[in-house]
Write a structure and sequence with these properties.
The complex is a heterodimer of chains A (419) and B (483).
Chain A: E1 3-12, H1 16-27, E2 33-36, E3 52-54, H2 56-59, E4 63-64, H3 65-78, E5 82-84, E6 88-92, E7 97-102, E8 105-116, E9 120-122, H4 125-128, E10 138-140, H5 141-149, E11 153-154, E12 158-162, H6 166-177, E13 181-186, H7 196-203, E14 210-211, E15 214-220, E16 227-232, E17 245-248, E18 251-254, E19 258-260, H8 263-267, E20 292-294, H9 305-320, E21 330-334, E22 338-342, E23 345-346, E24 353-358, E25 361-371, E26 374-384, E27 390-393, E28 404-415
Parallel strand pairs in A: 1-2, 1-8, 2-5, 8-20, 10-18, 12-13, 12-18, 13-14, 21-28
Antiparallel strand pairs in A: 3-4, 6-7, 7-8, 9-19, 15-16, 16-17, 21-23, 22-24, 24-27, 25-26, 25-28
Chain B: E1 4-10, H1 14-23, E2 30-33, E3 50-51, H2 62-81, E4 90-94, H3 97-110, E5 116-118, H4 120-126, E6 136-140, E7 144-145, H5 148-161, E8 165-167, E9 172-178, E10 181-186, E11 190-198, H6 204-210, E12 219-228, E13 239-242, E14 252-255, E15 261-264, E16 268-270, H7 279-292, E17 301-311, E18 318-321, E19 328-332, H8 338-355, H9 379-388, E20 395-397, E21 402-403, H10 404-412, H11 420-427, H12 443-451, E22 470-471, H13 472-482
Parallel strand pairs in B: 1-2, 1-11, 2-8, 4-13, 11-19
Antiparallel strand pairs in B: 3-7, 4-6, 5-6, 9-10, 10-11, 12-15, 12-16, 12-17, 14-15, 18-19, 20-21
Classes of the chains: A alpha/beta (419), B alpha+beta (483).
């Protein structure tokens, strides 16, 4: 028979979000707290991110991914949080029964609170429907990162990278450092997808060309990939005929976006946001289903792990001290210029943050808040990029009286190319 | 291993393996030669995977006759192979008044109990995502869905269990008469047999030409497909057929036995064995499928692929003895419904050989036992499996919930997976929505350990389809010493 375990808190996923949430729930008085991680180690994706750049905001120092994770792993080891490794959650019911398996057997946790911290996964070739053959040598950038940094493999020698997301940029540098020839980073949009600093440090410093407004339109090679056809794309996202050129390579990496991993959330009937792909949450990151919270990339893809930690600690604290009855006052909706906003629900609007992403790069822009078709606040945004989250303190917003939908938009000058 | 056999089967696709399954019931020494590293690597692996019912048989053709014979054999095969192909039923959708006539013909042809023609309202009650402007639907309860790989592998495993020999990586290049036997030449070896069955699918007419037989070369028609996330399973529980064209059964929307939705195929002539997908082809499939299901959620695509139909001008199977090499039987033009008809083809091949002088003496056979699939077990069963072997509690692929126990079994089975694709087709690692971005991290090391080889020898499919170049330090060292 499956083992039944009662828990005050079950945290699903031992990446940066889950670790911080479990720790802070425990430190705020919750007991017992279970942290379930399917991998052999805590830390999630941080373990394969051996480059520096983590922790500047939170710890005031530049750490590598494993160093950042280590800070939490050490604290967890000293705490009485029950960490179960190599434990995969297979099902979560709407009334918070978490079913998991590991080599010991099947576990059924009956949880008062469930914190979702499953992170995200990478978009694949199939999702993009890139036509052509189906040879070996096509990897998502994160998979390649694991293969290089953890397993110590060289995936290939001549590499084309589709998509200018951060992992792709980081991997361009990583493979160049290992002696591979990175022929180009190909980006369908007219602007960079990843952080500007990664463009400078990973492409410019290594003379790796970035082809904006280009995409891969065919994959050639029956056994191992032999090359790709790269074509120019016009403003409407259509391929410009006659612009096709063949680029020889033995490896294609895809860094074309991340999807919050919410199959378990759907299973538990937790309402999701069409813009983020993650659960709809309020400022305490509680979901539209009682007893469920979510933090980190499972909610929306964050740009910096520091913010994930901040949010997750807040969630843990809230769960630890048992939140008062939820009462939502405002519903936030992204409109023109805004691609997503988190949280989408506001109770009091006094503590916590608003995280937004813009649809394009803008300069000299304004973030506009409207309620009942009237603008009630604007904020200046000198420069914003889709890759960088706009973070706003909730207490800086002058919430209107009443209840209902608040629309957010960005008005400003669009940036094309790289500035 | 002796190099002389009663029967040599060339080709380990569904037809070759079905012939092996059928002949394994008799007291014969048999060898199956396959040029790839695994069974089911050609035409058999990439098709719609439908068990077409009697409504869809084509009268006065060989393919029609063998289709009907095959349907009569499926119950026996499912018993012997410990497999079940769900009879999910089908709806054939007529969009015009003209097309309704075809539905009546299907009904008459099938004479299936419970089959009926229904109006739009009734049809849309059965399948709410169907095009509401349809005229009528023909409901056929006997249509089933097949995993082509699972069927082929099970047939092969049964054959192996009952004495059939298998040799992989054996590409047959020609034949010679040698006394009263046939000498079979492969790139690596020589084999002798009184009887040889050419089940080489795409290459069957080429091989027939090598034995000096005259037959028009097969033309290949490509079909492209989308595979949708299992999240879309509610899109249709039934196989949705359009009214067919002259050339093919048209573009279908179908559930798969694994729980995905399969959309396709189109019908496009191609030169050589080109299984690439194309923008145009996929668009054609999309447009075709939207006529059946207008709200088709193609944004939930997890992969696309294409397969080939090897066809003869008469658009029928042609199964004939070589005129120059006695005892050599060629199977050409095995296109749709080749998968459904495979068992019937096997029986027919057996009869042909018997008529020509092969003695078939029945022997006792051992049935095949399927290995458990963790995903389809309930939690109680899972608990039992884990108690038996902790590897059942170690999930390797989160999307398809595949355990280490299943992966190890596939790598150690009687016909083991030796490639990543082979592993994927057996246990569905890398076949889910993340397409291997997660389990692809762990599989090379796991496979290398199980197969006792270096990671750089791990291939996706064929000899040169290597997954990684190897450990970085080794690659660097090899490079340095080469310079």
């Amino acid at each position: 028979m499956p083992r039944r375990v009662d828990a005050q808190v079950v945290v699903v996923g031992g990446g940066p979000a889950g670790m911080a949430a479990a720790l802070s729930a425990f430190e705020s008085g919750a007991y017992p707290v279970f942290l379930l991680e399917r991998g052999k180690h805590l830390g999630g994706i941080l373990n394969q991110c051996i480059h520096p750049g983590f922790g500047l905001h939170l710890f005031g120092e530049e750490l590598t991914g494993p160093e950042y994770a280590e800070k939490f792993i050490e604290r967890l080891a000293k705490s009485r949080v029950e960490v179960l490794l190599e434990t995969t959650v297979l099902e979560i019911t709407a009334d918070r029964v978490v079913k998991a398996v590991n080599a010991q057997g099947v576990f059924e946790f009956r949880a008062q609170n469930v914190i979702l911290g499953m992170g995200c996964r990478e978009k694949t070739r199939g999702m993009l429907r890139i036509p052509g053959h189906r040879p070996a040598g096509i990897f998502t950038a994160g998979l390649a990162q694991y293969l290089v940094n953890i397993e110590g493999y060289l995936p290939g020698k001549e590499v084309v990278i589709l998509g200018s997301g951060d992992i792709g940029l980081i991997m361009a540098r990583r493979l160049a450092l290992e002696g591979a020839c990175v022929k180009a980073v190909v980006e369908i949009k007219d602007s960079l997808s990843g952080l500007l600093r990664n463009y400078v440090q990973c492409l410019l410093d290594f003379d790796i060309p970035l082809l904006l407004s280009h995409t891969v339109t065919n994959i050639v090679g029956r056994e191992r990939i032999e090359g790709v056809v790269v074509s120019k794309v016009n403003g409407n996202g259509e391929v410009v005929s006659g612009s096709e050129r063949f680029m020889e390579c033995d490896t294609l990496l895809l860094s074309v976006g991340l999807i919050p991993e919410n199959e378990l959330s759907k299973n538990a009937h937790i309402p999701l946001c069409p813009f983020t792909g993650g659960p709809l949450v309020d400022e305490y990151f509680s979901c539209d289903r009682e007893g469920f919270f979510a933090c980190g990339n499972v909610v929306a893809v964050f740009d910096l792990v520091d913010y994930v930690t901040v949010v997750s600690e807040m969630v843990g604290k809230k769960v630890g001290v048992s939140a008062p009855k939820r009462r939502v006052r405002y519903f936030l909706t992204p409109t023109s210029g805004v691609s997503q906003v988190v949280p989408q629900r506001i109770q009091e609007g006094k503590e916590g943050f608003l995280f937004l992403r813009s649809q394009h790069g803008f300069h000299d822009a304004h973030l506009v808040f409207s309620f009942q078709e009237k603008i009630f606040q604007t904020m200046e945004l000198p420069l914003c990029y889709p890759s960088e989250m706009i973070k706003i303190n909730l207490q800086d917003i002058n919430w209107p009286s009443g209840e209902g939908e608040i629309q957010l938009s960005i008005k400003g000058e669009k940036i094309c190319g790289i500035r | 291993m002796s190099r002389t056999f009663d029967v040599v089967i060339i080709g380990g696709g569904v037809v070759g393996c079905a012939v092996a399954w059928y002949l394994a019931h008799f007291d014969l020494s048999i060898l199956l030669l396959e040029k790839e590293k695994d069974v089911c690597c050609g035409v058999s692996k990439a098709n719609t995977g439908i068990l077409h019912s009697r409504s869809y048989w084509t009268p006065s053709t060989l393919k029609g006759e063998l289709h009907l014979r095959s349907l009569a054999l499926f119950a026996q095969a499912e018993r012997e192979l410990d497999l079940c192909f769900p009879r999910v039923g089908a709806l054939t959708v007529a969009l015009t008044r003209e097309e309704v006539k075809f539905l009546e013909m299907l009904k008459k042809r099938g004479r299936i109990r419970g089959a009926e023609i229904m109006g739009p309202r009734e049809a849309c009650q059965m399948e709410p995502f169907l095009n509401p402007s349809l005229r009528a639907c023909y409901y056929d309860p006997e249509t089933g869905v097949i995993s082509p790989f699972a069927l082929t592998l099970a047939l092969a495993e049964f054959a192996l269990l009952n004495g059939v020999n298998f040799a992989f990586g054996e590409e047959v290049t020609g034949f010679e008469k040698d006394g009263n036997k046939i000498k079979i030449l492969s790139k690596k070896n020589r084999y002798w047999s009184k009887w040889v069955v050419n089940c080489t699918g795409l290459f069957s007419t080429q091989l027939a030409h090598r034995s000096g037989d005259s037959i028009p070369p097969q033309r290949f028609f490509r079909g492209e497909y989308f595979v949708l996330d299992r999240e879309c399973a509610a899109l249709t529980r039934h196989v949705l057929y359009p009214v067919p064209t002259e050339e093919s059964k048209g573009i279908l929307v179908s559930p798969t036995p694994e729980g995905n939705i399969l959309v396709g195929p189109n019908f496009e002539p191609v030169e050589d064995e080109d299984t690439a997908t194309t923008f145009r082809g996929l668009k054609e499939v999309e447009d075709g499928a939207r006529k059946l299901v207008p709200s088709l959620p193609l944004e939930k695509t997890i992969t696309t692929f294409s397969g080939l139909r090897p066809t003869l001008p008469e658009r029928d199977f042609r199964i004939f003895f070589s005129s120059s090499i006695p005892g050599l039987l060629h199977l050409c033009g095995i296109e749709s419904p080749g998968l459904t008809a495979s068992l019937g083809i096997a029986e027919y091949v057996g009869e042909k050989l018997e008529d020509a002088g092969l003695t078939l003496r029945e022997k006792a056979v051992v049935p095949r036992a399927a290995f458990p699939v963790f995903r389809t077990c309930d939690f109680r069963e899972r608990e039992r499996l884990i108690a038996e072997n902790p590897d059942w509690g170690r999930i390797i692929c989160r999307c398809e919930e595949v355990t280490l126990a299943e992966v190890k079994h596939a790598l150690r089975a009687s016909i083991p997976a030796v490639t990543l694709d082979g592993l994927k087709r057996r246990v569905r690692v890398m076949a889910g929505r993340c397409q291997g971005s997660f389990c692809g991290m762990h599989l090379p090391a796991l496979m290398a350990e199980e197969l006792g080889c270096d990671e750089k020898e791990i291939v996706k499919s064929t000899e040169n389809a290597f997954y990684v170049l190897g450990k970085i330090e080794k690659v660097v060292k090899d490079h340095a010493s080469a310079c």
